[in-house]
Specification:
By secondary structure, this protein is an alpha/beta fold. It is built from 16 helices and 16 strands.
Length: about 400
């Protein structure tokens, strides 16, 4: 007998048991870890039974009840090793990943597995879930180019290693029932580097209500960067650009985040003669991060390998104009002349010019840009992101949200 519409609806809204596999998860600080945490918390708030498999962040491993983004989650911490070329990264032994996955899958019996990368945890879960006929969703936050500098490989081998990494990613994601990436640019890039097709572009999403815009008349010129203080972020370009700003602007620069290049960049700031105007804040609590964004004048991001950039989205939710490298997914967030400016990647003089453009805007034009950032970020509401993933978990068809059209296109 076919299901009645009522029974079908009740089935589609039935809470799910979801196992999220993450190679990086808080207390790690990066976009992939933040997204996995926010997704897990949001799903939990909607009544789903959420479990997370992730590397242990210290010598203690096992099953823990942990607080993340306001929700209590069951996190299965797997024994891990420190990756010493990186300043904090830990990893699960690759040859043990499938054994760990098999044990958890048999114990949890999830309705769906959602892997956040193909590297170790995701590799094991995808293969073992496929063997058991469990639906698998894969999300790619990974750019081999971002990780390669944290290896010990000589430079002449890196291009080949990147190719091998993409081929490896394709094998794992081929086991997934659906594959997503945070932006259309990132999805297209994944398809171009692998044999995958039909990759969904689904924003990581953000809860804009957590951020506080400031529309008071500016009293200072303050530039802020938020992110890992590592090579792929190209913070040295920002420092060189900042050093050439007109002294009459009396600008200050805040670098929020920790990483392995902190000492080198502090030394560069001293060499450039700007150490007294640059504040390296390190990793700060969420409340302090939001306060830094609220008091800033403009957000700068010189990174060239962003698959989306949650930090940029946080800045936009704080009503900041953004000056960003014209690379990867950043042009999907920053619309030149509307909510900020794009500059030629790696070009410190161009970045300096675009920062000057913002810092010298008449007050009414600055307010227009701030409001434009808020309008653009509305399309990245995390509740919509969670709803789309719920549909994917249930095997329902989804339409990728449109998040990168200009305001003029939105109005037409």
């Amino acid at each position: 007998m076919p299901e009645s519409p009522q029974s079908a609806a009740s089935t589609s809204s039935k809470p799910l048991r979801v196992l999220i596999g993450a190679d990086t998860f808080p207390p790690d600080v990066n976009g992939a870890a933040n997204f996995a945490s926010r997704l897990a918390a949001g799903l939990t708030e909607r009544g789903h039974d959420v479990h997370v498999e992730a590397p242990a962040f210290n010598r203690f491993h096992g099953d823990f009840q942990e607080q993340h983004d306001g929700a209590t989650l069951t996190v299965h911490r797997i024994y891990s090793w420190r990756w010493f070329p990186h300043d904090w990264l830990r990893f699960v032994l690759p040859w043990r990943s499938q054994a760990h996955a098999a044990r958890l899958l048999d114990a949890i019996k999830p309705d769906v597995v959602h892997i956040q990368s193909h590297i170790v945890v995701g590799r094991g879960l995808a293969r073992q879930a496929a063997k058991r006929g469990i639906r698998v969703i894969g999300t790619n936050h990974f750019m081999p180019e971002n990780m390669i500098e944290h290896t010990l490989l000589p430079r002449f081998l890196r291009r080949k290693a990147i190719q091998i990494a993409w081929n490896d990613a394709a094998k794992t994601f081929a086991l997934c029932d659906a594959v997503t990436s945070p932006s259309r640019k990132a999805a297209d890039f994944l398809e171009a580097e692998t044999s995958l097709r039909g990759v969904h572009a689904i924003s990581c999403g953000i809860d804009a209500s957590l951020y506080t815009p400031n529309f008071a008349k500016r009293t200072e010129n303050r530039v802020v960067f938020v992110g890992r203080v590592t090579g792929e972020k190209h913070i040295d370009v920002l420092l060189r650009a900042f050093a050439t700003l007109d002294p009459k602007l009396d600008a200050k620069l805040d670098i929020v985040g920790g990483g392995d290049l902190m000492n080198q960049l502090k030394q560069l700031a001293r060499e450039l003669g700007i150490a007294d105007r640059v504040d390296f804040l390190g990793h700060v609590p969420d409340e302090e991060l939001r306060a830094e964004l609220t008091r800033a004048t403009v957000f700068a991001i010189p990174s060239i390998a962003e698959l989306q950039s949650i930090a940029t989205m946080e800045a936009m939710a704080s009503a900041l104009p953004v000056v960003a490298a014209n690379a990867m997914a950043l042009p999907h967030l920053v619309h030149h002349g509307e909510n900020g400016y794009l500059f030629e990647p790696g070009d410190a003089s161009d970045l300096s010019a675009r920062l000057t453009d913002v810092l010298t805007l008449p007050e009414d034009e600055l307010q227009r840009m701030k409001k434009s950032s808020l309008k653009y970020i509305a399309a990245h509401d995390i509740q919509r992101t969670i709803s789309i993933f719920e549909s994917l978990y249930r095997g329902e068809s989804v339409t990728d949200p449109v998040t990168d059209v200009s305001l003029d296109e939105q109005a037409s």
